[in-house]
Predict the structure.
Amino acid sequence: MAISRRDALQLSGVTAAAITLSGCSKYMGETTSTQAVSVSESTAAITTNSSTAVGVGSPAPLPQAKGPRVVVVGGGWSGLTIAKYTKKYAPNADVVLIEQRTEFMSCPLSNLWVVDAIDLDFLMHDYLQAARENDYMYFNATVVGVDKKRKIVSTSNGDLAYDHLVLAPGIDYDYSDWTTDPALEQRLRTEYPAGFKAGSEHLSLRNKVLDFEEGNFLLTVPTGNYRCLPAPYERACLIADFFKLEGIEGKVIILDENPQITIKADGFGSAFEKLYEDYIEYLPSSKIVNIDLDKKSVETELGEVIEFEDAAFYPKVRGGKLLEIAGVAKDSVFNKQEGDIDVFTYEVKGHPEVYITGDARPMGFSKSGNTANSEGVIVAKMIAGKINGKKVPWESPLTICFSAVAMDPVLAISVNASYMYDKEKAAFAFANASTNEKWDGKPGINNGKGMHEWAKGMFRDMFS
C-alpha cells in the first residue's frame, strides 16, 4: 500500500524538522539589567549595523512593532497556543510566531495515519490561517541565534528585536547511550527514524509499515521523560493490528528500557495479551548495548541477540538544540539540555523576559499535545500579566491523553491528570489522576470517539 499522490503533495513541505535548533546543557547566558534595550532601539541597531554576527544582521521584513513585541519561536502545540492567547489577553502586544515549517502536521493521532486508519487531512493545518484568525504574525524562518543582552533574535530571514521571547523548540534525539559514531547515528536517523517528530519521519515509518511483508518489526522505548509516554505502546498495538487485519506474518518486538509499561499499563498489557498474543512480544528492561545494521540485529544488556526485518529506533530525548545555542539549557533529572528555568514562572534564570515551554521544559510534565496546549494558555497569561502590570500565579497544566489500541473500530484508553509540587522531593507529580483503561466493548468505542472529538477541539483552539 503506497502513499497517495495527494498525501505526498501535502507532505512535500513538512519534511524539515519543526525547528532546527533545540536542547538541554549548561547555562551560559549573560546577565542583563531590567533597563533592557527597547524594541525600537534594537531595531535601529539592526538596521544600521551590517555585521553578520548574531543580532546585528539585516532586519527581518516585518512591520515595525506598535506595542510590546512578543516573539514565539516554534509552531508546535505550545508555540501556537501561546501566540494565540498572548494576543487575546494582551491585545496591545505585537505577537510574532517564528516557525521553520510552512504547514503544521500533528504528532498526536499520527500513529493512526501510519497504519492508514485516518486521512492526512486530519493532521495537516495552516499556519497562515492560525495567524489570520488570531491576529498575530506568522514568520516563516529558522532561528540561528539569540542575543539575550540586546534582546534580538537572528533568523535565516533577518533579525528582529523582542520585549518578551518564548522558546518552544520541542525535542531533539539523544543517541549517545547507543553510539558515539556519527556514521551509525546518521544511519539510524535516516534508515530507522524514531517517528516522534512530525513530517518526514512519519512518512518514512508509514511506508515501512504499509510495505512490510514478514518477520520482526522492532520498536524501542527509551527511559527518561520522552515525548508522549504511551505513544510507543499505542504504535505497537496499531502496527500489530495492521499485520493482523492484512494477514501479514509479522511480529512487533518492543524493546523497553523501562522495567514495565510506563503508563496505562493495565490497558496496554491486556491489549498485548488478549488482542495481539501472536503479534506482539514485549521485552521490558531491555537496554540495547550493540546495534549491527548490516546484520539487522541488536544485542541487549542481558546478552539477547534479536534480529529484525525493519525497525524504528526511538532513542532518549533531549531539549531542542536552540536552547543550547541560546545559552539557556541545563541537564534535568530526566534528560539532557532542557530549559534552565524557574519551574513556576517558565522564565529563564537571569533573563526573566525569556520563557521556555512545551516539550523543552525540565519539569516532569507529560510531553504531550494537551499538556503543551493547556500550559501555553497559562504562560500566555503570565506574559500578558507582565505587559498589563499584573502578576499571574502558577497554575497546573492538564494532561488529557487518548491512546488507540485497535483501529477497526477505533478502540482507545485514556488518562486525565493535573500536577502538584512535592516540596519534600522538590519535584512535580500527578494530582487528581484518573484513567479509563477498559478498551473492549462500549468503553473502548466511546474512548475512540472521544479521541477524535478531543483532537478536533484542539485543532479548532489552535487554528481558529
